[in-house]
Amino acid sequence: MPQVAVIVLAAGAGTRMKSRTPKPLHPLAGKPLIAHVLSTAGELHPERIVTVVRHERERMAAAVLEFAPHVLIADQDEVPGTGRAVEQGLDAIGDFSGHVVVLSGDVPLIDAATLGRLIERHEHEGNQMTLLSAHLSDPTGLGRIVRDEAGAFVRIVEQKDASDAERAIDEVNGGIYVFDAAALREALGTIDRNNAQGEMYLTDAAVRIQAAGGRIQAVPASDSWAIWGINDRVQLAAAAHELNDRIIRRWQRAGVTFADPASTWIDTDVTLAEDVTILPGTQLLGATVVATGATIGPDTTLVDTEVGEDATVKRTDATLSVIGARASVGPWAYLRPNSVVGADGKIGTFVETKNTQIGVGSKIPHLSYIGDTTVGDGSNIGAGTITANYDGVAKHRTEVGSHVRTGSHNVFVAPVSIADGAYTGAGTIVRKDVEPGALAISVAPQRNMTGWVETHRPGTAAADAAAAAEQQAPDA
Q1: What pLDDT score does 2 carry?
Q2: Which residue range forms the structural domain that includes residue 396?
Q3: Mean residue pLDDT across the chain
Q4: Which of 49, 176, 382, 431 has its CA 20 to 30 A from that of 95?
């Protein structure tokens, strides 16, 4: 690969998005639009990458550097237009003398292979400018590529300036370029703002390069999505569907089963092993990792979550959690951050966990909230258990040992410890530590107040039923 520098244009306001969020920062498959572009740029192994910003400058620069700390930030000044943005990107690059690739921060589906072929054509043919084009069934609104009878590039004509014959051309300018650095600098130095918008147009560089005797060629992309720019939310949604389809097809070819691809969403940084099964209505987001043989879904959302081999996770919402091998989670489970379910563990129906580590083979079967808790191995937490972890000022932990059996409808008032092998009775409120092998109960004697309903609720259906039952009861 020849020596390359990349300029990414991200200075525009993107007003058609109608959003407080700068257009390049809108999310697509788990990353901002511009992060996709910067990732592709990085695959070219360039000498330098420069991102040109202006609108929401501080926010844009921070987002770019968070994703790619090595990128240089250039500021576009008050002079508008893509030509000026590239000129200031060139200033940031310095005395670089190789090939300059110009990308847009809102064209997220451009790929390194397509750019590599474009650079190779540029190098092989000795061009001063090589642009990526595409043939579209509906080229409305886009600049057309005009060629001569031999197929050589003649010019770019914008639709508003095109003749009827030129508007019939289906090959459009993709806005992705490779320039010889010296030719680009010279051309930009001669571009003016004598147009209706008063802007420095980068496309005017083609006119200047041709006038100086430079060679220009347009190379059609084999995939028109490579030039797909995002200008509004309709286009963003279309790109999201296309990218999601590509991600799913890639994982299908790698041995993953998707029961219903149309209802499944997978982010770009998700990792799936062979023989994983994804059921309908599932979203795997962030850096989620799913190991061999696991079944995820239906109706499940996992964010930055690790799932072990042969685990089953159904109708579950989990974030920043770890689910061990052969564990069972759901349905209707909610794993909040820092939840860890050990191998062969179980989180059942309507269970919520938070900042909780559950040991090998331990189970929280149903209807419980377990927060700020450690559970050892082989323990069973009874239905309807609550860890009262907040005292109104601070959070406290509950420690449950191994092979513990707790009764239904327990409340553990933290900080509290239930040692190995202990039991608790149904309805127990545990306020004091329980020693190994002990049974903890908090039972008040049951008191039946005879005649209470007839005395305090006279005339009610309950009182009438009670009276009838007393009349039918045999004499003591």
Answers
A1: 67
A2: 247-440
A3: 95
A4: 176
Contact of 167 with 173, CB cutoff 8 Å: no
Question: The domain spanning residue 81 has which CATH number?
Answer: 3.90.550.10
The three-class DSSP label of residue 410 is coil
Sign of the four-CA dihedral 335, 338, 343, 346: negative
What average pLDDT does the segment 165-180 reach?
96
**Mind listing the pLDDT tens digit for each residue in 184-219?**
999 999 988 877 777 888 988 998 999 999 999 999
Query: Does pTM surpass 0.70?
Result: yes
* Confidence check: pLDDT of 476 > 60: no
Residues 83 and 147 in one domain: yes
Q: Which of 26, 122, 366, 403 is catalytic?
A: 366
User: Do 269 and 125 sit in the same domain of this protein?
Assistant: no
How many whole angstroms separate alpha carbon 77 and alpha carbon 259? 51
> Using CA atoms, how far apart are residues 83 and 299, in angstroms rounded to an integer?
48
Taken as a whole, the chain contains a residue count of: 476
Same domain, 9 and 112: yes
Res 297 pLDDT > 90: yes
204 and 254 belong to one structural domain? no
Q: For residues 174 and 265, state if they share a domain.
A: no
In terms of C-beta density within 10 A (0-12 exposed, 13-18 middle, 19 or more buried), how is residue 333 classed? buried
Cα distances from 31 to residues 214, 235, 242, 317, in angstroms, run: 39, 16, 15, 20
Residue 233 forms part of a structural domain: no
Mean pLDDT of 386-412: 95
Let me know if 366 is a catalytic residue.
yes
435 and 342 together in one domain? yes
Q: How many domains does the chain have?
A: 2
Is it true that the peptide bond before 108 is cis, omega within 30 degrees of 0?
A: no
